[in-house]
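Practice problem. Given the sequence and the SMILES for pyridoxal-5'-phosphate, write out the predicted structure.
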Amino acid sequence: MKFATKAIHAGIKPDATSGAIMTPIFQTSTYVQDAPGVHKGYEYARTQNPTRNVLQNQLAALENGNHGICFSSGLAATDAIIKLFDPGDHIISSNDLYGGTYRIFTKVFQRYGVDFSFVDMTTVSAIEQAIQPTTKLIWIETPTNPMLNIVDIKAVCELAKKHNILVCVDNTFASPYLQQPLDLGADFVLHSATKYLGGHSDVIHGAVVVKEKNLADRLAFIQNACGAVPGPQDCFLILRGIKTLHIRMERACENTQKIAAFLQSHPKVASVNYPGFKAHKGHEIAKQQMKHFGAMVSFSLKDDSLDAANKVLSGTDLFSLAESLGGVESLIGHPATMTHASIPLEERRKTGVLDSLIRLSVGIEDADDLIDDLAKALQ
Ligand SMILES: *Cc1c(COP(=O)(O)O)cnc(C)c1O
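Answer key:
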């Protein structure tokens, strides 16, 4: 089955009791048993819920995995994966990472004795150098946030396999429509479904997809033991969002290509980070591992001051100033003070998160209107 068909049908059947074509929202906390231990596969809704099951099966199909596990947020999914590891275990991640991921690694799990190294993942040798005998996991995000660097998923997975290390790819920025990391050798794919999967900025949700039953069982155990489950209504909203994922991504990526070209030619813009440019360091890898170049773009101004950035940030009408991404509407954000405020200044500067860096999540409006809006704000 091709992706567009899967987005509508995979894992979804009309409801067995009513024929309802849309998966019902099973708003229940418990399930009646015929006799002690005799039930229909559902006992208590922290452990299992039919609406959640349908979504989990669909996500597994979209990522070419075998098992999906849904969580109450992307960070709850991250939390569950890191809880598979023990004090003394070492995890390698990128120095250009979603701010909340950096925060849970350094402010929560480091306190429990898990060790982290943050390296420039665009060079595989930097990862190889960071490997220790205790290294158990490599955590990839690609494209990265907010610099839009590209990590070679296949090359990193090959390196990891040689050392018996697991690989997790945060696929939030690409969505399964653009990139399928399990096919490239990853063990876990993680999503903040809050973003492109949901697609309408109306729900917080997270998911992990794996191939191995053993990993799925251990994650389900942690989910049930720790309790970070999504509500059935939220699962329904993600199911609904996914039905148009491929169409939304096509339009958003097309708009982004036009906007990146406009920014590149603008006299007030210093540099544009967009993997679709031939000159982008990760362009060739992006071409291989992604279907299109994504709908995120960031740029810095020739006048690298907070003041100049503020003028642009408050000068747009269509681009709303907000954190998050991946919705149908375009957003504009300021990583240094918004999404990446939890990353220390020295760390930020090292990775290029300058004071004037502005990040766009391009939506599915008309590209000409979006360009006019940016032109006005840059003026
Ligand atoms: C938003 C985001 C997360 C966290 O997800 P929540 O659903 O907000 O908990 C993780 N990784 C990336 C790349 C994100 O953009």
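Check your answer against the key. Residues 30 and 44 are 5 Å apart (CA to CA).
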